[in-house]
């Protein structure tokens, strides 16, 4: 389809093979010898200590323009991760033109996480083998492991075995991803650590030390916000669409991730670019994709019909679903269902 065709309605059957949960192929939970990734552990700990120092002892020293700068960067990197890495590259819930893909690649590099292929492969593995030994963020191993422990330790052998079979051939054909991954360390050094720090210093005379500390806070905030999807959204919240799975709808996670916390819906309908059918809920990432569609930069936006969603709720929901509410408590706007 061309960019002029913006919305594609799909059903469970249309994408069953792409998103079929495959936990039956993984043995029951087993222990394994975790080893710390020493360099990653030291680096991550150091940045978190610097961020904590900045928050506790230097919070009111930055200029207002410095606060604004890092607030903007945090949200742009959040959009690049939530819309780009998650909704676009992992789930292909819409198509993106070259300018939008460049935006995603640039600001994802500024987020300073892992390579695009690494991120997408792990997340596709997570969906296909959720809550098993093959799940990179397996929440059965506890809150700490699903939040950050998986990032600091070696993977379970089953994650490596099953993950190696996940198809990422589409990523290998994208020249932007090839470039990003080839020069990943250099991109991260310049775009995540150096450039955001130097802008306040060069343009409005901010102290280099204060700017660096503010960048550490920004960097760690975005990391932990995204990690909360794997941890908090698998432990706290309602399961209005499927009570048989651990992922939950969590308002707090949605607030800090710009809408990625409606996680029970997302695991039920991972191809749906909206991540929730209810437009009264907080979901800036969905609105960003809608804006890109109006500009012609995003197209073939995949959605599930209300009929498919209602059947899922009736079949496996926990009884908490009410249109426009979470757990029966109105969050934003009307409590009546307003489909997209």
TrEMBL record:
Cofactor(s) listed in the protein's UniProt record: Fe(2+)
CDD domains noted in UniProt: Delta9-FADS-like
BP-aspect Gene Ontology terms: unsaturated fatty acid biosynthetic process
Major site of localization recorded for this protein: membrane
Subcellular location: Membrane
Example of a GO cellular component annotation carried by this entry: endoplasmic reticulum membrane
Transmembrane stretches, start-end: 42-60, 67-89, 101-120
Pfam families assigned to the protein according to its UniProt record, in alphabetical order: FA_desaturase
Residue ranges of domain Fatty acid desaturase in the record: 67-270
Membrane topology: Multi-pass membrane protein
DNA damage among keywords: no
UniProt-listed InterPro entries: Acyl-CoA_DS, FA_desaturase_dom
GO MF entries: iron ion binding; stearoyl-CoA 9-desaturase activity
Keywords: Fatty acid biosynthesis, Fatty acid metabolism, Iron, Lipid biosynthesis, Lipid metabolism, Membrane, Oxidoreductase, Transmembrane, Transmembrane helix
Family recorded in the similarity comment: Belongs to the fatty acid desaturase type 1 family.
Domains (record comment): The histidine box domains are involved in binding the catalytic metal ions.
Protein name as it appears in the record: Fatty acid desaturase domain-containing protein
């Amino acid at each position: 389809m061309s960019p002029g065709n913006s919305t594609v309605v799909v059903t469970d059957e249309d994408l069953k093979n792409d998103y079929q949960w495959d936990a039956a192929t993984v043995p029951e939970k087993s222990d394994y010898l975790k080893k710390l990734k020493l360099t990653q552990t030291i680096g991550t700990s150091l940045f978190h200590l610097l961020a904590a120092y900045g928050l506790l002892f230097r919070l009111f020293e930055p200029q207002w323009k410095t606060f604004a700068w890092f607030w903007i960067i945090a949200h742009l990197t959040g959009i690049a991760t939530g819309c780009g890495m998650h909704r676009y590259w992992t789930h292909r819930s819409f198509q993106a033109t070259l300018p939008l893909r460049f935006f995603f690649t640039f600001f994802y590099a500024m987020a300073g996480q892992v390579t695009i292929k690494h991120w997408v492969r792990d997340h596709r593995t997570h969906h296909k083998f959720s809550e098993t030994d093959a799940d990179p963020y397996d929440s059965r191993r506890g809150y700490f492991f699903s939040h950050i422990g998986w990032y600091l330790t070696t993977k379970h052998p089953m994650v490596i075995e099953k993950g190696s079979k996940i198809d990422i051939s589409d990523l290998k054909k994208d020249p932007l991803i090839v470039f990003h991954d080839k020069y990943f360390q250099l991109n991260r050094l310049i775009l995540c650590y150096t450039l955001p720090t130097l802008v306040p210093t060069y343009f409005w005379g901010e102290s280099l030390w204060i700017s660096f500390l503010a960048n550490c806070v920004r960097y760690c905030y975005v990391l932990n916000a995204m990690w909360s999807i794997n941890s908090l959204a698998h432990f706290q919240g309602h399961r209005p669409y499927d009570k048989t799975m651990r992922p939950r709808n969590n308002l707090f996670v949605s607030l800090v991730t710009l809408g990625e916390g409606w996680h029970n819906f997302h695991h039920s309908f991972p191809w749906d670019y909206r991540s929730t059918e209810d437009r009264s809920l907080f979901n800036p990432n969905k609105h960003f994709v809608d804006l890109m569609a109006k500009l012609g930069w995003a197209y073939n936006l995949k959605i599930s019909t209300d009929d498919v969603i209602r059947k899922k709720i009736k079949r496996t929901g926990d009884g908490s679903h009410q249109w426009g509410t979470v757990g029966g408590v109105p969050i934003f706007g009307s409590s009546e269902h307003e489909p997209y």
